[in-house]
Design goal:
The structure is a single chain. The chain is mainly beta. The protein has strands at about 5, 10, 15-20, 25-30, 45, 55-60, 65, 80-85, 95-100, 115-125, 135, 140-150, 160-170, 175-180, 185-200, 205-215, 215-220, 230-235, 245-250, 255, 265-270. It is elongated, with a radius of gyration of 28 Å. The two termini are about 30 Å apart.
Length: about 270
């Protein structure tokens, strides 16, 4: 038997083919611009293969809720006035909150972490609207905060876009993040949340050996992601079709009958 292996192709009396795969990333983004008073609010624009995200707003003490615009606060539109901490009720947290629920497109295995990036545009004047938000998110390590942009606004204040980042443990569970407003009050104009999870490099599926055993062909390979499936075809012309041989294989070898004695074999992983 003659065997030639080149770029994952082993040629014998049957030709065996396998495909490699490179690393990739599972990503999502959801951008709430709050152009309407819907609560829960769906993102204005988004891309998330795992499903639709929501933002549920709880208005706190003295909050005016959703406002199309606010006189004296510039040209921003679609605002949420979340309210403040009631100075006469120190025993209870009366600040407004936003709960983000984001379906997670990240697989539970194959990643070392998930990056969550949150951008919030809010009004800050350093007196009442301090911009000091707090966050609650399970299974996350806080990675830092930076100011993306600060545009001069009315009342000696500014519309500030802050960026916050976390590392999360990979999981199929939705990302649940609670944003709690500042003690003196919070005006939110926009929220954007992005998730990025680089997958570990997956080695290409390469055939290691092909041997004939009686009227069977023994194939071994390495790489790829299990389970694997072996396919056969009588030719590689446009009218040829690949047929699965046997059930999916968890290991990295298979034995298939040599029937007919000449043809083509392909091994594919789950990636």
């Amino acid at each position: 038997m003659i065997m030639k292996q080149l770029r994952g192709v082993a040629r014998v009396s049957w030709l065996c083919l396998c495909a490699g795969v490179s690393s990739m990333a599972d990503t999502s983004y959801q951008d709430w611009q709050f152009s309407a008073s819907n609560n829960p609010a769906t993102p204005t624009v988004f891309s998330n293969a795992a499903g639709a995200s929501t933002a549920t707003i709880t208005v706190g003490f003295g909050g005016a809720g959703w406002q199309p615009t606010l006189s004296g606060f510039g040209t921003q539109s679609g605002l949420w006035d979340l309210g403040l901490q009631n100075p006469d009720d120190s025993g209870h947290d009366t600040r407004g909150k936003v709960l983000l629920n984001i379906p997670n497109p990240v697989p539970s295995t194959g990643n070392s972490y998930t990056d969550l990036e949150l951008r919030i545009v809010q009004f800050v004047d350093g007196l009442f609207y301090t911009g000091d938000l707090t966050f609650s998110i399970a299974g996350a390590v806080y990675a830092g905060r930076s100011v993306v942009e600060s545009l001069p606004g009315p009342l000696s204040g500014a519309w500030v876009e802050d960026q916050f980042q976390w590392h999360l443990t990979p999981s199929w569970a939705p990302v649940s993040l609670t944003i709690t407003g500042a003690v003196g009050g919070t005006l939110v104009d926009r929220i954007r949340a992005d998730t990025v999870a680089p997958q570990a490099q997956v080695p290409p599926l390469v055939i290691n050996s092909v041997a004939q055993r009686s009227q069977a062909l023994v194939i071994t390979w390495a790489g790829g992601v299990p389970p694997y499936q072996v396919y056969v075809a009588s030719n590689l012309l446009s009218n040829g079709s690949w047929l699965a041989v046997g059930p999916p294989v968890a290991g990295t070898n298979a034995i298939i009958p040599l029937n007919p004695p000449a043809g083509f074999v392909r091994v594919r992983g789950s990636n």
